[in-house]
Amino acid sequence: MKTDLELALECVINIYHQYAIKNPLDDYLSKNEFSELLKKSAQPFLHNTLPANTSVDDYISKLFTKADGNHDGRLKFTEFLTTLNLVVIEAHKRSHQGHDHGHGQDHSHDHDHDHGH
Q: What are the strands, taking DSSP E only, across the chain?
């Protein structure tokens, strides 16, 4: 039986392929494919990590530009993972805002669990 993480990772790969092959038919995400993927498959994440005073389209453009390491105007799978990394880190950070971990102080990452930061 597969673990939740295995299923999540397989899901990421499948979603990437589902959108990468749309238009043009290749194994890269164009900006339009990338935008459609995030809007359809990651809407709650987008809204939960959206910077203040930024539209969804501007945010997607910024994520695309940050991820497009070789500046070829398309994302290969490893560049797409950079985007997920940025969004998931921001979502994790925000998940700790507004609740108390029982310490009576702000959450810090130097206790019990190391995320490799």
A: 29-30, 74-75
